[in-house]
Amino acid sequence: MTLSTQKPTREERAAMTKDELLRAVWLLDDVLESLRWIPIKERQPKYDGEYETTVRALPGFKSISPGVIQNIRMVYVSGKWKSQWFQEIPYYQVLAWREVVKVDT
Fold first, then answer.
1. Does the pLDDT of residue 39 top 90, yes or no?
2. What predicted TM-score, i.e. pTM, was given to this entire model?
């Protein structure tokens, strides 16, 4: 998701119609949903792609103690029989995910 719309001025907001304000609220709801961390137990992503993930280190990886929780970017690929998270380092259990948000400045 890329956010690039400039914030309207006070005068522009005051001149908005009820329908324009409702659309703004619905857009805000969509933006907030895309920023939310979604637990794996709730659902997997709908689309293949790169996501920010919260992961727990599993036993077997020597440089990270088991149980350590951190955020890393991972690629999700859905398949007919099985969906998978791919990352450079194995031994992670994905706990939650969210879209990678890019903000234009």
1. yes
2. 0.60
